[in-house]
Fold this protein.
Amino acid sequence: MLSGCTREESSGWVEVTERPGDGTQIGNMMALLNMPKHDDLPASASQRRDPVDADQPAQPTKLQQRIRAVAPPRPVLDRQAERGLTVRQREVLQRLGEVFEAGFSDLTMADLAARANCSLRTLYGLAPTRDELVLTVVDRNLWRVGRSARNAMSPDMQPLDAIRAYLSVANSAVSHTSEEFARDLDAMPAARRLRDDHAEYLIAMTKCLLDFAVERGDIATVDTAVVARVIASLGRDFARPEVIPRLSYSPKEAADVMIGVILRGLTTTDSQTVSKSRFADGTRRTSRAQARS
């Protein structure tokens, strides 16, 4: 979904480097109903600070250094295209986000123009197809959510607290996902790629913070790649169209609860005093029975 800046300019789930090709190369996350205001969108390095840098000290903290090292995926609109949007175009994109909430598979460009109260010329000035409009709207929202998630982590925050804060905000991307929107987005190959790209960044960021927690001795040595993939994927998994009807809570609420459960489990006394045994395939695991003996 967006493109054109450097890693340090990136602010959440997306990097900004130019992406060649058509809209089918843009791939990412589903979830996004509260579409961003135009002033929430990617800005140049001179216009914004690196996330997690509010009141940034002269020297970046270890947490900030770790976070900056995680490379985000590429966006849909490059920086030049984003800056070139008129106020009217931004308003239309925001309105389209509201339209897409109820599903969009049966809507034509003419339908969208009518519902957004704009001309077809305005729509085609934004994207050549309906699906590319969807990807643009989704990606701009993910930029906003990603930036907010990184800004939720203060520079001196403990790693596990940073994970909770980061994922809680990141999961807001799925907080109001409707079954119709999730279903239609899931049916788009480009949207699935977009979802996967952003999901991998979310996992990489979580693993980075878990590695930091292990190094500090906050949690026992664990396979951080496995744990990160589990907890960072909960919001996405709970927002699947076939899962939403089975939940007692929203996808975000369900994900937040389970993240809390898993992180508490990593910090129990037993988990920090266990020794290690081996699985049959040679990998290692902890054994509480051995720890007690």
About this structure: Strands lie at 2-3, 77-78, 275-278, 284-287. Residues 1-49, 269-293 have pLDDT under 50 and may be disordered. DSSP finds 14 helices and four strands in the chain.
